[in-house]
Structures are given as structure tokens and as C-alpha cells.
Amino acid sequence: METQMKKHILVIFFDQLRYDGIGANGNPYIITPALDSIAAESQRFTRCMTPSPVCVPARLSMMSGQYPARTGNSNNNPELGYKGKGFYSSITEAGYDSCNVGKMHYVWDKLGNLGFKKRHVQEPCAKDEYYEFIRNSPYKDVFDFDGQRSEMYYVPQVSQLPQEYHPTNWVGERSLDFLEGCDPEEDNIFMFTSIFHPHPPFSPPSPWNKIYRDYEGIEPVRPKNPDPLTFEKILYDRFRMDRLGISEIDLKRLRNFYYACISFADYQVSRIIAKLKEKGMYDDTLIVVTSDHGDMLGDYRVVGKRTMFNGACRIPMLIRVPGMEPSVRHDPCSLVDLAPTLLS
């Protein structure tokens, strides 16, 4: 009897990665060779919009395949109306050896399994597996291992941890551990790797912080009418540059560190892809690359999210399907499309 070929699913999920944070999406300045290589083999969607430019409702919409108006969650709060299990459970119940690594940010159950057989949790500001890793390391006295927040939230900063102990690297290592331990000949594999960066604080490890020192890059969107009050009703003004005291040189450095966080995450992606190839899994793996929302990064003189302007709401969507010719797709899509697409 002929053995049925095993099929695998890998979701690589970023937090706050805007559409032009990948070189393949038209940014000639950013260094993302691993993501660019995936894009070259993928259906690359140019008009993917988040269902919500806020972490929790966007992620819940992805999990449920429903918009925030149906899930009951429109902000980073634990109250919600959706009571379903979500599509992670459905894939696990279909017989996949499933594993999540990193931040999922379902605030009503930060440390739960969320339908995966295994979880390696790295939730910012939580006493999770990564927290225990740091507490048992030579850097146990480092308190702000996700970067300094509060008044430093949008101040670019070098991580207090070296590369080997940085949370982005930890997510990469745990992803490699799972792939190393799985048996692709016996099991269908579903891995969801969720990387906290480039969410602020923008705190890449040294020497990655230096990679864009000479960066000029894509200029922020400057409205013809410079008065921010013109856009007051559709821009979230808590993070207006003038309100935070962010000068043009500060903004340049902020964008440099944002890009450095992405490039360090891209390095982790390169390691994961190399492991898939080493295990003989790559040719049988469907790969999705996307994000919950973007960041304004100085567009309209604001930083942050919480607005439906392109910088915050337009996100990357790459879907590499084994055997399918790559293409550029201009039809609109959203995170709510992932559940029915992957389940089908």
C-alpha cells in the first residue's frame, strides 16, 4: 500500500509588522532575506488589512474567523463574546502534532494551550516559560527583558540582554527544538511561531541595533495639511509625535531600531527554514507569514496603531503552498480568512 505523503503547516506571526516591513513588499532598504525568499515562492497579497489595528481583537478574529463585531472584542480587554475553540483546536483535532511558540496574547488565558498540543509561552509582562528561562540564566537580575516601557515605550533602546538570551532568539530556539523532536514521517506537523517584535519597545540586541545607522529609508507619509487636528477623528492621538516630544532625528532612530528588530526576527526565520530543509519537510510545508497590525512610524506625525490608516492596518500576507506557482495577488483579504483557508 502506498504511504500517504505528510503535509505540514507553519505560521510565522509577527506583532506590529507593517506591510512595507518586508523587502519583497517594495522596501529596498530593509534587510529581510529569509522573508524575501518565502515571498518569492508564495501567493503575495498586496491588499491584506487587519480586522482591527489592536493586538487582542486582531488575534481573536484570526483565531475565530470572525470580525470584532461578531467576537465581541474590540480592544485589549479580557471580556469577549466569542466562546468557540478556534481553528488551532480544529487542526489539532484533525490529527496534527501542533505546537505554539511565543506570544499569542489571548488575555483571558495567556498561559493556556489555546488548542495546541504544546505551548512554549513568551508573553510580555507575564511569568511564563521565558520568564523562568531568564530567572535561571546569568541574566536573572535583568528586569525589563522585553525592553523598558512606560515613558520609554517609544524610545529606541538596545536590549539589556545579549542576542542568545533575547526573547526573539528564545522563540527561534524553541521553534527549532520542536522541529528537531518531531517525526515528519509519522505525523502531520502544525507549528505557530509568534514573534513579539517589532512591537515596541524597539529593543534589538547588540550589534543588531547598528545595522541601520546610515538608513535613510522610506519617508513617512506627510499630509498636505500638516495640522494633526484635521485627522483627529481617525488618528489615535495618544502617540502624536509632538505630544511625545519626538523630533525628526528621534523618529529616524526609532524607525532604524524598528527595522533592526525585524532583521533580527528574519534571522530566526532563516534558521527555521533551514531546519525544515534539514528534516526533509520544506517541500511539504504550507507556510503563512503575517502580522496582527502595523505601526504608523511617523506617518501623519503619529506613531503606534489604533487607526485604520495604511501604516497601522495594512499588513503582510504571504502564503506558500507546495506545488502552487507563486503570484502577486491584489484581491483584498484579512486575518479572518486564515481559519477557513487553512481548514479547507
Describe the structure.
- Helix 6 packs parallel to helix 8.
- The protein has 344 residues and is α/β, with parallel strands linked by helices.
- It is globular and about 60 Å long.
- The chain starts with 7 loop residues before the first strand and ends with a helix.
- The strands form 2 sheets. It has an 8-stranded mixed beta sheet, with helices on both faces. The chain has a two-stranded parallel ribbon with strand order 3-10.
- The model has no long low-confidence stretch (mean pLDDT 91).
Write a brief structural summary:
The chain is α/β, with parallel strands linked by helices and 344 residues long. It has helices spanning 33-39, 55-64, 68-71, 87-93, 129-135, 167-181, 241-244, 248-278, 310-313, 338-343, and strands at 8-14, 43-45, 48-49, 96-102, 118-121, 188-195, 285-291, 317-320, 327-329, 333-334. It has an eight-stranded mixed beta sheet with strand order 5-4-6-1-7-8-2-9, with helices on both faces. A two-stranded parallel ribbon has the order 3-10.
H/I helix tally: 10
Q: List the helices and strands in order.
A: EHEEHHHEEHHEHHEHEEEH
State the total count of DSSP E strands. 10
- What value does the average pLDDT take? 91
* CA(first)-CA(last) distance: 26 Å
Which structural category fits the helices and strands?
alpha/beta
Which regions have little confidence, pLDDT < 50, spanning 5+ residues?
none
Shape: globular
